[in-house]
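thread: overnight batch results

M.L. [08:02]
morning all. the overnight job finished for the chain we discussed friday. pasting input first so we're all looking at the same thing
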Amino acid sequence: MFAKDLIKKMVLETDRLILRELTLNDVDDLLKVLGDREAMKFYPQPFDRPMTQAWIERNIDRYKQNGFGLWATILKESNKLIGDCGLVVQQVNGVEEVEIGYHIRRDLWGRGLATEAAQACRDWGFDRLGGDRLISLIHPGNIASRRVAEKVGMSLIEEIEWKHKSTCIYAVEREVR
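M.L. [08:03]
and the structure it wrote out:
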């Protein structure tokens, strides 16, 4: 992707990351994240190439429908896609909620990159969407993901059965200024 295309599709920037819209050119790089058995152990299965392409296509549709979705997470120091992070509309207990979701390449875990991206998405969500609450839906056994949620100010609200599996709902409320 050319630099002008990267800037054109850029949504957010942090100290170490650029978040931009996913494109079909990202399939191979995102597959390194979503196809990793360990990184995806809380999903029904790791993704293959067609599943990754469909994931990107769903997010491209979300950009058109909602103005947001999961975005490509680019590490500035290498200019490489290292995962995705963003906001997704979810139906939870009959209510439409906006979820912060994130996936980071496993060899980069423990560096605070998911937290940095999720914080930027939290702030963007409150600033741009006007809602009072954002959530994250996390498998109870995914301790690392739960810690990211806590680091961005979320608290465990409840554990429910969601999409036929036990799921923790973490939430953060808009700060009153």
